[in-house]
Amino acid sequence: MKDMKLFYSTEEVAQHFEVAPSKIRYYEREFNLKIQTRGKNKAFTKKDIEKIGEIIALVDEDNYTLQGVKDQLKSKKVKKNDNQGVIDRLTYVKEVLVKIRG
């Protein structure tokens, strides 16, 4: 997605990944993606497009089953949450050290 739009239609996303729009809609339903709507049309953000791209890559390139993709995305989310916990603790330690330092 080269242009600077904030939202993209299902057709634009499908064209970007060179797949049928029905495939984008299927993944949206299958993975319970919360895509905004603008009137009657879906409005995909860059983050939504990244998620769709990740799903397409796992299914088409890495030959994962849909359940395998769900498991991969879930484990990635768990890792991300673990990392956030470490970041939060380090931020707290930094704040304490700054207060001690004066």
TrEMBL record:
One of the GO BP terms on file: regulation of DNA-templated transcription
InterPro entries according to UniProt:
DNA-bd_dom_put_sf, MerR-type_HTH_dom
Q: Which organism is it from?
A: Arcticibacterium luteifluviistationis
Q: Which GO terms describe its molecular function?
A: DNA binding
Q: What is this protein called?
A: MerR family transcriptional regulator
Q: Which residues form the HTH merR-type domain?
A: 8-75
